[in-house]
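Consider the following assembly input.
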Amino acid sequence: MSEQMIRVNKLNKSFGDLHVLKDIDFHVEESEVVVLIGASGSGKSTMLRCLNFLEMKNSGELFIKGKQIDPKRDNLNKVRQQVGMVFQHFNLFPHMTVLGNVMEAPTQVKGIAKSQAKKEGQELLEKVGLGDKANDYPSRLSGGQKQRVAIARALAMKPEIMLFDEPTSALDPELVGEVLATMKDLAKEGMTMVVVTHEMGFAREVADRVVYMHDGKIVESGAPKDLFENPQEERTQAFLSSIL
Amino acid sequence: MYLYSANFWTALIDSRGMFFEAAQMTLALTAVSILIAIVIGLMFAFMKISKIKPLEWLANIYIYVVRGTPLIVQIFVFYYGLTEVWMISGFWSVALGLAFHNGAYIAEIFRGSIQSIGKGQAEAGRSLGMSGTLTMRRIILPQAFRRALPPLGNQFIIGLKDSSLAAFIGVSEIFAVATTQGANTFDYMTWLLVSAVWYLILVFLLTLVVSAIEKKMAVSD
């Protein structure tokens, strides 16, 4: 049986009076690609950010690889090394070269030798098709290239789980494809992925499971074929008909 | 025009050795006080953005006092205050007074530039497993320093010119030498203008240094 990479029980999160996540139960198996869909404000990004503790839950349990994580007791920096994250706005470090971005965490956090980090970083950049950009600064890259560097930067820590927070939402339409292609390759290699996106084509083609969220709750989840073609809940039907 | 009288030009040229020495004193005062001010400024900037309230209050009080009182008062308080408890030269009491003064302004410059770096940068660092301190040192501060450089350069120029107040404590920097020469020759105007020329030269050099650093840091644009 494959290992459960993420398990969330009765997760609640509020921002002040705003109750954003309501008793969420959620899990991700090893090598599974889960796509979170839902209208903006439904809580999908907040949920993703709770998974690597960029947001702190108010209540509930969170397990990473079977181990319950307590933010007060556990070293979150260690936890985050296993959980890579890609942001909507890339958040590349503008004062470092492309290769410098990719090498930063392995050398500074893991203490890996510069020569080795450089070699591995270059390989990762080749993998996302940007080997020739290693010595450029991020300001010289297109949005799609920036996002692919961000993916390589996260992969450099050799995470076991990758979180994607609307990775193509800030891109010009013609640049979306290259980022999705990189993500597809990653899924094929067996990476465990949780993806918040509005790209229904990607969800249909790559996801093992699609989760529809509305108003801080998971309304429905299932294989993409089932969920897209035969949604059970009225809310899901309404959402899908509004976007497809 | 006064500047065309032979008197001024002869004075400027003949006194170059004396003023060159005084300029070194001015530069030493400026360099020492600014270096200390940068350390003080960084420390109080961190206190001001700290989540520990008493530290924030302390930083606010410091900035309030420095901004609310004249520099000359601060320098004299340092001079009379420090020399009473501690054998310290006029040079060092002025240097510390200037550092105490500029530190408050530099603290505000650093605070603003640190806070101007987007939240996403810190999140990216943390999401890679970097600690808060490491993220500050490797990700936030290098970018904040770059953004702080133009206002810092401005503050350095102010610091350089304010070092002329050391004349009132008897430190032989440019302004002190000029007023002494003026008193000796009964020709204040000539010597004040000579001192102005020397300040202009020093500020020009300082501007060159700052813009060279700015250029060097702009490679990532």
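The mean pLDDT of chain A is 94. Ask yourself how this observation constrains the way the partners meet.
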